[in-house]
Description:
By secondary structure, the protein is of the alpha/beta class. The chain has a domain at about 15-65 and about 150-210 and about 305-350: NAD(P)-binding Rossmann-like Domain (Rossmann fold, 3-Layer(aba) Sandwich). The chain has six helices and 15 strands. The strands form two sheets. Strands 3, 4, 5, 8, 9, 10, 11, 12 and 13 form a nine-stranded mixed β-sheet that branches. It has a six-stranded mixed β-sheet with strand order 6-2-1-7-15-14, sandwiched between helices. A hairpin with a 2-residue loop joins β14 (about 305-315) and β15 (about 315-320). α1 (about 25-35) runs parallel beside α3 and α1 packs across α6 (about 330-350). The radius of gyration is 21 Å and the shape is globular. Bound molecules: flavin-adenine dinucleotide.
Amino acid sequence: MGECDQIDPEELPFAQRPIVVLGAGIIGCATARQLLMKGFPVVLVAEYLPGDQNIYYASAWAGAAWHAAGGITPDQRYLQAVTHRVLLKMAQDDPESGVSIVNAREYLEQKPAPDSAIWGKTVVSKFREMNPDEYPSNFNCAWAYETLVTDPTRHMPYLGKQVTSLGGRFIRHRVESLQELYGMFPESRVFVNASGWGSKSLTDVRDDSCFPERGQNVFMTTDKCNTLYFRNGKEYTYVIPRPLSKGVVLGGVKQQDNLSPEVDMDIAQDEIARAHRLAPEIVPEHPAADSISHIIGIRPSRKGGFRLDSERKGNRIVLSAYGFGGGGYAFSYGVADAVVKMVETTERENVI
Ligand SMILES: Cc1cc2nc3c(=O)[nH]c(=O)nc-3n(C[C@H](O)[C@H](O)[C@H](O)COP(=O)(O)OP(=O)(O)OC[C@H]3O[C@@H](n4cnc5c(N)ncnc54)[C@H](O)[C@@H]3O)c2cc1C
């Protein structure tokens, strides 16, 4: 390139400055995919990338069921609804995505409160209240419906490939601050912080509301992997099918501030016992040892809930999308869609 052809970064049009995404978990990658599909150039910078298996990379370890969260705002419900729409299309069109349509049975100890997960019936298919003779007598009511499960062992590599084939670029690098990231991309104006639990330690974010919440699940191989079971109340127990991996994920447990990478066999046995009580037709009391393996991951949780907002910092826009705790997959593509809209707003404001 001759000297006259050199482009001053300050003169680059908005749509040609790469949008920089910090984090390549489900939130960062889903965001990158949706931005790329709209034509924005995207670079992702992350310590862990699709296909990695570190306990701090939560996206490798999720169940991951689409389950309507209770106690959330209508805007947050919409994020989940968008996610359902995108995942459903993937399940229908693209088995490589690792997304499957499964039956769900949800058992409740008490009649649902108005702000409970009941709103999910506006999104899922085939929702019905079950008859009392269809569920165990220790529950007060139960719902049957169709939902979506995402197998992260397939979905993250799939998403990584999609991002790359759409022109996105991954850079494996750990940054200590957003400032360091700005220095790597002086021409960029829009940065997305999708660093999950990383936002606790980035020196210019230091979000003290973030905390790690350890999860440990049992994976059991079985052909009976088409129905999800869920109860949340006195007990937090689920059986999440993974039809494409021929098994089910048994859980769950949430251990705040516990970072242990070691399998806790007491937890594993308790999860098997609870799953057996919830779904005895799928989970035997004593599964064969060779049908069992263990999953451990650190959920990026946040007191007060996740962040999804836009801030102007000098001549840069920083979009924050982190703190999704146990629901990152169920919110993922809705969050990505919301980030795209925020970027488009910035693009519009840039037009004189
Ligand atoms: C056992 C278990 C079961 C779960 N089940 C479900 C479920 O059924 N349904 C559901 O919706 N969710 C579930 N989840 C939650 C889900 O996994 C998380 O909410 C989701 O993966 C969070 O995604 P994320 O992209 O925000 O974070 P992560 O996947 O943790 O990714 C963070 C990214 O940021 C990068 N990063 C962080 N700091 C830095 C830095 N300083 N420099 C460079 N890179 C950095 C990391 O390397 C990584 O790429 C479960 C989680 C666990 C552990």
